[in-house]
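[[Local backbone shapes]]
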Amino acid sequence: MATVDLTDANFEQIVTTNDKVIIDFWASWCGPCRQFAPIFEAASEKHPDFVFAKVDSDAQQTLAGQFGIRSIPTLMVFREKVILFSEAGALPAAQLDALIDQARTLDMAEVHREIAAQNSPGAAATDAPGDAPA
């Protein structure tokens, strides 16, 4: 499957209508981005259950800014509209495949429960491990 070019105009539609989306934030002048591009493209052929998308961070500065992209390439994995992974740097093919497999097998019902619990009005902040009670 070919990669999709994401813009401000189609980003929301792509992420909300597809359960699994992997996004590569890149720029044409970026050497690591150019090296990662064939790995990303090959993964798109190997994993047709994911939508593989690219954001040209120069042409789509507003979109890159919304996600706080400070370094490229940056890879993001969305599943059911939840960002599961966001990290700068190109990945080797085997590491990208492993990341995709992890995203595919993650229990999203549990992820949604955890998000709901964190966002509930009664959720209390907990002390960090090792913190003494005040």
In short: Residues 21 and 78 are 5 Å apart (CA to CA).
